[in-house]
Predict the structure.
Amino acid sequence: MEKMASEGISEAKIRNHFLTVKSPVTLFAWDNGKPSEDERTITALDSIKYYFRQLNTGFMVMDPKSGMVKAWVGGTDFSFFQYDHVKAKRQVGSTFKPIVYAKAIQAGIGQ
């Protein structure tokens, strides 16, 4: 959007482009419980909606006594999404945000 704006394209034309211009893409899909690819033609807005419907998470289950890993799920399908959400590095602060924000809201901060 910034590139289009820097080229002198109006905000209305950028918005219209975002909502109406379609491009061919290959989407990840499940077909009878098996991963597959689906060829579609979609707008930029459709692409964002599709992305946010995808499950982007992972989990690991560990026995607290032995430390043995019982389960490890890094994501939906590594052949399509080469990213292991279990190994992903995250900022520790993000874990505390809901707790801190809830206390701030209870205290009336930001009102």
The chain has two domains: 1-54, 56-111. Helices lie at 2-6, 11-20, 44-53, 93-106.
